[in-house]
Fold this protein.
Amino acid sequence: MKTVQIKTLIFTTLIALVLSSCTKSSDIAYPTLKQVYFSENFDNTGGTALPTGWTSYAEMGTKLWTGGVYGGDGYASVSAYGSGDAADISWLISPAIDMDQHDGESLSFQTCHDKYVASLSNTLEVYISTDYTGNFGAAHWTKINYIATLPNPYTKPYAYVNSGAIDLSLYTGMIHFAFRYTGINPSTGAYQVDNVRIVY
């Protein structure tokens, strides 16, 4: 009798464990594809013009960002080559982005450089402003801290590198993001930016 009770208890326990470990299909969190909120591939610039809403500002020196096309693919580009300036600092500023439309936004882009970027004195950084309204000097810009996946200036020129996802989810209201280029002679190579995306 005792053996039968023990077997019944074991069987009941096993059934309970099996049933409790099952997950209904409605409880499974399936991954969803990200939705694109903002994108720019610089393909419709008509040559050297920047797309509507994008602006370039020379903080130091004379060089500005321009549009470019190679093999039918557009991009934004900047170089301090031939400027004659001791240093060039040039900003490529995005159109206004409304961060109250979605949750969980992230920014990504691709960059490459030419073979003349031969020093770490040539840099490309990303900044964000929450109060830029067209007057660069009156705005506050915050450098984005993330593990950059920018091109190595010493290797693989002309090879596009993915930035990875940059979290923008904590921002609210209107923002502008910007690419800040620094070119210092004699290392005055070009950087290119393409396939800019904000997804949520």
The longest strand covers residues 174-184. Helices lie at 2-21.
